[in-house]
């Protein structure tokens, strides 16, 4: 039963990665920066929009891979590890910009990613995934 929840959870996470982060960053960077991130419209330089577009490309790729991993999460143990590392790295960078540089106030991003990682950690059958990797 836990595996069924994990499969559907990964599919929902994939849709969020593709839609909220991927497509919005890629096709609507100005909207994302001003509406979601709360940035001053004066920050919409060509370089900043390029960076937001690059994040969109990476989020789209991560979303597609997450969706593919959802069909057999145990077999795709490496993808779950990658998602965790990406999430931890993203939270670390955002925290640095909030606490040290005072250049961001995206607490919502940190809370969202942390919640996703906690649920993934609870639902994932870690022993089976690790065994699968060992036997490959």
Order of helices and strands: HHHHHH
Output the radius of gyration: 16 Å
Give the overall pLDDT as a whole number: 87
Approximately how much helix is present in the residues? over 70%
Which sheet architecture does the biggest sheet show?
none
Decide which structural class fits the backbone.
Answer: mainly alpha
- Count of discrete domains: 1
Assign an overall shape: elongated
Strand content: under 5%
Terminal CA distance reads 25 Å
* Low-pLDDT residue intervals, each spanning 5 or more residues: none
Task: List the total number of helices.
Answer: 6
The number of distinct β-strands equals: 0
If you had to describe this structure to a student in words, what would you say it looks like?
With 136 residues, the chain is mainly alpha-helical. It has one domain. Helices cover 79% and strands 0% of the residues. It contains six helices and no strands. It has helices spanning 2-27, 29-36, 46-69, 77-99, 107-123, 126-135. The longest helix has 26 residues, at 2-27. The protein is elongated and about 55 Å long. The model has no long low-confidence stretch (mean pLDDT 87).
